[in-house]
Amino acid sequence: MPTLCKPSVSVPEYVLTMEETLEFAGRVHLGKPQLPLALRLIQNTGVLKRHIVQPIEETLRHPGLEERNRIYEVESKKRCPAVIEEALANAGITARDVDMIIYVSCTGFLMPSLTAWLINNMGFRSDTRQLPIAQLGCAAGSAAINRAHDFCVAYPERNVLIVSCELCSLCYQPDDDGVGSLLSDGLFGDAVAAAVVRGSGGTGMMLQRNASHLIPNSEKWISYAVRATGFHFQLDRRVPGTMEPLAPVLRELAAEHGWDIGNLDFYIIHAGGPRILDDLSKFLDVAPTAFRHSRATLSEYGNIASAVVLDALRRLFDEDTTMPGGTGVIAGFGPGITAEMAVGSWVVDAPRSMDRTRRDASVSHFEQDFHWRQRGGSHGRPGRPVRSGPAADHKGAGSHLQGHRG
């Protein structure tokens, strides 16, 4: 079954402490009627520090959407490659072993997606599938894990690279004075994360079942207002209460797999804020310490959007206390209101490179394609192995589909 391997995570060099956040918020938004409430809410987030891609003085200025998006492109291309290389090494594979790249980000816009640039510049095969996810916000990290799981179930032995690049500070809007906007100014941080889902082999969380859930009629609770100045974050006051309707959904997912959601060995939960973690702990009847990895991410990095679940998972790896066979859940929450959830077991298997024959064959056929194109492509395309397809991969896929949902 597919295995989610150890993520790699990197945060920018500029650090913003809680004290500095309160100081700049009080200074920049002085006189705003909602400021006193917002400052109290920021103090209650538990975010001790965050990392941002620019010095705070530059972050507070708004140079316009065009310039901010240019910065996003420059910074994403600068910061993603090293994180990706480490994630590939963690999984024991190379760029040419990757069959799909899922790139998630809600803080900048590029077309073509950064996936095209990565393929062209990092040695990925030209037939690597691309799946950008831009509009699931904080739920996108878990959604990427689930879509990688789906792909590896459909096409066994394949590998998927997940990349999350969230530069939330580039969405700061100095003229917004709503409570939700002011709170977000003290909550979100910047980070880049990556992880590999291996179709076979690897150490980490063996993905066994996944599910999605949308709270009806809640699409306006977390949203962007897209204006001339860029993305304006909008947060409804009902959002902190969303764990009450979502907890039964998580409980049902575990029960369908024969597990008790309140008695698992590890929990990787999106840290949207302390209220989210506190409520989910209560409704699932789970000790608050069970969410320690998510709380650590929130405290040290802030809410890093889709990268939260990957960083919390990295901390679980670093803790190194999970035993083979340990059961766990990953859950992310975001706009919609959308929940993306997965359950699985811990497996330990020294990472190994993909079969050399397959990799060499891939290179050989790439070279044939190259020479065919050089000749003008007029004498028939050289034969190539079909890397994936329902017919080609149907044999043996049944065992992977067992217990799979969504």
Count of all domains: 2
- Would you give the CATH topology of the largest domain? Peroxisomal Thiolase, Chain A, domain 1
| Average pLDDT level | 86
Any idea what the radius of gyration is?
22 Å
CATH class category label of the largest domain? Alpha Beta
Largest sheet: 10 strands, mixed
The number of distinct β-strands equals 14
Q: How big a fraction of the residues is strand? A: 15-25%
The residue fraction in helices comes out at 25-40%
Which stretches are low in confidence, meaning pLDDT under 50 for 5 or more residues running? 350-406
Question: What spatial form do the alpha-carbon principal axes imply?
Answer: globular
H/E order of the elements?
A: EEEHHEHHEHEHEHEEEEHEHHHEEHHH
Helix/sheet category: alpha+beta
| CATH homology superfamily of the largest domain | Thiolase/Chalcone synthase
Tally of individual helices: 14
Ends apart, CA distance between termini: 16 Å
How does CATH name the architecture of the largest domain?
3-Layer(aba) Sandwich
